[in-house]
Q: What sequence folds into this?
């Protein structure tokens, strides 16, 4: 009973904030509503007994990606700019496509006899995740570090201001 | 199962979030708005991974995969927002309809 109440509260928070993200006319409102969605999803993770993922969601998504998104919003948009900053065109076809996709998925969810274990396990997950990373998933784990390094270097290279001197060498003479 | 919650509860929640994210990606013209829609879709995928991991008997594969998803989302956000800022430096707008200077 308590778990159900918590689930529905988190679901309302998640879906309501996601609706603001999707429908708001102001990109700053969208960015702040993303906070509600990410925190709600973190609560869902906790409800699913994923303690490590819950902390990772808060640290990386709320603390990292959301702050980065807000930075980008503020850098590309005047903060005082409250006009329609999040223009949306073609809402009707987008709504139709999303509704059809949702209907197909609801049909699939309720028609499929999902494999479910007889008993769910609740307990600390860090030990098992650590073992999985260093045993079964050792190669993807190493690839992940290469991807992060590439993203790091790529972001620095892309966001570096354009050096005008190298662009037109004849000007400096 | 804890407190009368079933797998379908979580699957329906995640597909609602996915549909909202899809709508956001399809209808937005602000590049950052599109990236936010991608974040919604990735979060809905993660809910699915963890729901199946939980109701599938407590194996760690789903959790490991969702960690990879979060890692890739972070990399995507960093590179995507860097590209958005570079476009803004050049064109003074991040409206994706205005950034079609390559089209003949």
A:
């Amino acid at each position: 009973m308590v778990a159900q109440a918590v689930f529905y509260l988190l679901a309302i928070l998640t879906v309501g904030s996601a609706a603001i993200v999707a429908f708001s006319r102001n990109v700053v409102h969208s960015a702040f509503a993303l906070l509600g969605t990410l925190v709600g999803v973190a609560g869902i993770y906790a409800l699913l007994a994923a303690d490590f993922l819950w902390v990772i969601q808060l640290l990386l998504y709320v603390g990292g990606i959301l702050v980065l998104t807000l930075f980008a919003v503020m850098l590309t948009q005047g903060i005082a700019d409250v006009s329609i900053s999040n223009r949306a065109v073609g809402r009707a076809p987008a709504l139709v496509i999303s509704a059809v996709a949702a209907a197909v998925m609801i049909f699939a969810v309720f028609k499929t006899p999902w494999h479910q274990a007889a008993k769910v396990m609740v307990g600390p997950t860090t030990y098992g995740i650590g073992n999985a990373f260093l045993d079964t998933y050792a190669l993807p784990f190493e690839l992940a570090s290469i991807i992060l390094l590439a993203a790091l270097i790529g972001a620095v290279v892309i966001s570096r201001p354009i050096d005008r001197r190298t662009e037109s060498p004849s000007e400096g003479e | 199962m804890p407190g009368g919650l079933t797998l379908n509860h979580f699957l329906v929640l995640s597909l609602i979030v996915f549909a909202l994210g899809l709508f956001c990606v399809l209808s937005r013209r602000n590049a950052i708005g599109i990236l936010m829609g991608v974040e919604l879709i990735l979060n809905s995928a993660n809910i699915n991974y963890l729901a199946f991991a939980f109701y599938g008997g407590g194996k760690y594969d789903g959790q490991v995969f969702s960690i990879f998803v979060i890692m890739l989302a972070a990399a995507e956000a960093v590179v995507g927002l860097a590209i958005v800022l570079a476009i803004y430096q050049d064109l003074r707008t991040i409206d994706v309809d205005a950034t079609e200077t390559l089209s003949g």
